[in-house]
Amino acid sequence: MAGNGPGGKNLVVVQLSGGNDYLNTVVPYQDGLYYDYRPNMGLKGESVIPLDDRVGFNSHMAPIKRMYDSGMVAVFMGIGYPEPNRSHFRSMDIWHTAEPFTSSAEGWLGKVTKALDPEGKNPVTAVNFGRGLPRALAYPGVSVASVGALESYGLYTGLAGAKNRDALLDTVSRVYQPMSEDGIPSLRILQTGRGALDGADLLRQAPSHHNSNVEYPEDNPIAQSLKGVAQVTSAHLGTRVFYTAHGSFDTHTNELVNHSLLWDQLSEAVECFWSDMEEQGTADDTVMWIFSEFGRRVADNGTGTDHGSGGSAFLIGPSVKGGLYGDYPNLDPGSQLDGDIRFNTDYRDVYATILESFMELESESILNSRFGRLDLAAV
Question: Which pTM was predicted?
Fold first, then answer.
């Protein structure tokens, strides 16, 4: 029975920003219609690594194929949501809030963080590697640390010594001092500031706990972000939700070059990360969710592809039952949605499965409804 206890896996989320091309990621290499619609962008021959006799991975995903062969990669074909939206911003909001039909400021992972730490005792229950705060992690009363490089991370790091930082915090305290008992917003700002300082002090120490033989490529930004995740994991700070992003996958032009580079970087980074988790002995305690806001159009535009709908996503980890999930891409003109792939797997079913089968959380209050659960947990 799922509950709100402290058990369950740690969740690492990798957002493929910009709209990853589903059909050039999970390639229907035996479907003649694919090549009819993509005379310029269609992948064939050594550009495809077969998964079965119908679809294969882009050849720049070889490290992920090795993990797939070991049974730890679940591939979702045609994942999406009803009434698809081709706007980057709106579609990403839909994924971030688990609300396809209404606008919400409450992120699904912000709710997860609240469920994991209801009283906000741990300032690093959720950590974002990147700039700003992803909508997925936003929720009232939830503090999230956003990190660039851990070695240089900290709040007020230009101040020399603890006394100066304490003096600045005292100033912040006076600026936001509630003028009366109902001065709650100011009090919340002050508490958030102090929580951020506490989180900075914790996270800055994380690299010193990381002793790994895995060499993450320094010129690969997503690899460096996942190295940061591994560093925080090794410090045992109680962080349960990690978020990062890779892209841009908005490949309207020069797609064959750009898409290949992005998957070279991501595949290498993911393989390094899981090797690190195995070395640390924390692989079984971790699952990784990789998603994008939408796929691309079925037909290419000559040098790339434009915004579409149904896409692909991945759930990775030793505790995951690997394989292909969802329907094979149906490229028949009568089955398309205005030139797009129709979705056949609701992303909220996967969210519900992640929450209940892996994180041991009740999903209905987080997703605002009851969704189906997929058989994704390895026995």
Answer: 0.89
